Amino acid sequence: IECLQLSVCSGSTNSDAMDAFRHGYHRALCVTEQQTQGRGRRGRTWASPFAANLCFSLAWRFSVGVAALEGLSLVVGMAIRSALAELGLSNVTLKWPNDVLIELKKLAGVLIEVSGDTSIESQVVIGIGVNVAMPAKMASEIDQPWTDLRSQGLVCTRTDLLIMLLKHLLPALSEFEKRGFAHFKQQWNDADAFKGQVVCVKTLSQSWEGVCQGVNDSGALLLKGASGLQALHGGELSVRLA
Ligand code: BTN
């Protein structure tokens, strides 16, 4: 890490990490206590009240183009899962493409944004939000089932959590860059919250229903439906129990 930015309040650490690229850094870490414009996938907001979440983003240059990074959000999810396992939480599962769940409730999310891409390298922002101790009043503001570390009985400072996440995340990123997603496929399928279940996958324009068969070598979701086995690519999909 070439640059560390710690702030008390940020709009979004993903924007801070984009700025780090603009300032010429290739590997930067931006962490904050609170976000005023925390963003999630598909235009959602990410509730980030003071000290309740661990919110951080990595600005990361890869020596491959974005086309080779399809499984990145899955690799990040796995790193979060193994960090939490080392902290004592063994019941964490993953929802394709990027949610970290406990008992099907969302504990953490990953937002990946691309800042630059050529065929031989790319600049990517990896934003991670982990619910640590959310105030009870947030319950009505979050539109999906969620949980936090405190209600899972895990007492851990956000600093210790960040250190543990980086310990798992940084080696996973270089392994992924070198070896691609196929190397991680089995590990992801072992953590899949929905494997073998009938799910409905929606994009903005279409939806598919089928039995979830895990992911393939590039990280695409395999759905077995009426018309056979379908590999669903892209990061803008949501999975709901049918
Ligand atoms: C999602 O599940 O929709 C993704 C949530 C990602 C939230 C994190 S918090 C740190 C970083 N900054 C943001 O604005 N978003 C990500």
From TrEMBL:
Keywords: ATP-binding, Biotin, DNA-binding, Ligase, Nucleotide-binding, Repressor, Transcription, Transcription regulation
GO biological process entries: regulation of DNA-templated transcription
Signal peptide: none
Domain BPL/LPL catalytic: 1-177
GO cellular component, one term: cytoplasm
UniProt KW Transport keyword: no
Amino acids binding biotin: S12, T13, N14, Q35, R39, G40, R41, K106
MF-aspect GO terms: ATP binding; biotin--[biotin carboxyl-carrier protein] ligase activity; DNA binding
Top-level taxon of the source organism: Bacteria
Catalytic activity of the protein: biotin + L-lysyl-[protein] + ATP = N(6)-biotinyl-L-lysyl-[protein] + AMP + diphosphate + H(+)
EC number: 6.3.4.15
Protein function: Acts both as a biotin--[acetyl-CoA-carboxylase] ligase and a biotin-operon repressor. In the presence of ATP, BirA activates biotin to form the BirA-biotinyl-5'-adenylate (BirA-bio-5'-AMP or holoBirA) complex. HoloBirA can either transfer the biotinyl moiety to the biotin carboxyl carrier protein (BCCP) subunit of acetyl-CoA carboxylase, or bind to the biotin operator site and inhibit transcription of the operon.
Family membership: Belongs to the biotin--protein ligase family.
Protein name in the entry: Bifunctional ligase/repressor BirA
Species this protein is from: Nitrincola tibetensis
Region of the whole protein represented: 92 to 333 of 336
